[in-house]
Amino acid sequence: MRTLTDRFWITATALSLMLAANHAQAQTWEEKKAARLKPLTESEKQAVIDAIPEAPAIPPKAPRKILVFWLCEGFIHTSIPTGNFALETMGQKTGAYTATLADDYSVFTPANLAHYDLILFNSTTRLKFPNADHRKAIMDFVAAGKGIAGIHAASDNFDNWPEALAMIGGIFNGHPWGAGGTWAFRVDDTGHPINQAFSGKGFWHKDEIYQYNPATYQGKDNLRILVSLDFSKAQNQAPLLQPRKDKPAEAASAEEAAKREVPVSWIREYGGGRVFYSNFGHNESTFSSKPMLKHFLDGIQYALGDLSAEATPTAKASSLTPALAPDQPPSK
Questions:
Q1: pTM, whole model, 2 decimals?
Q2: 282: helix, strand or coil
């Protein structure tokens, strides 16, 4: 039986937790980002600059402008400042585009979007787009033949906007492959222009990788898959063999795990425009990886309409040459 003192402390603890939750909910975006996001050091900036390609894969057909949007209404990734710096600096260094950074829905008006060729969502989460006019402005932008790109958590959005959810390709449904792990990746189409960063080979990379809600994932019938997890490797299978704490019966067998398909980067044509999405980018270190920044730049140039690349969905494409990762990650 609990004593009066026990009941007091239980009640006090519950009240404290409730007040803390209410305080967190009451925080503004300005307060949240100030608490969560830190500026880059000069050495961190230099590491990014050193990884940026010297030139784009192809010169732009015209001066290009991209709008990099980074507002979060859900989880806030600490890699956002690194991604913003990399995206902005990559445009400056290569001449492929000029980037403008924004984190307020007010930028999504027809008059403002008329200045841009691409909207890039940099690890945005749970965006609501409560203003229907803003939603229409984005879809009109795509219908006019312009581009959409997304980095990492750009697929953790649009849960109340089915059209945009279909456009990006699917919604986040957990990340069994955590940020501390080094995972094996299959290059699904070694000859594809957006995969030239990987030199025709599969690879290992340290990052957090999502799986997608099957009800929303657009699949190989709609997406041209560029990179995916390599499930011939036991390291990639291992997280699927562990039962989830909330659903202990859902662990996969080794045979089931080996057959899994988890895409990581893809492109598609949508509504008159072009879409590039890559799940890479949870870790800050991804933005100081030369292959990753070239992969991002080539994908952006495709979405801008400068880099010609086959977007026929994977299920309908022919003569694809995949490449698996080496048997083991490179030694440090």
A1: 0.90
A2: coil
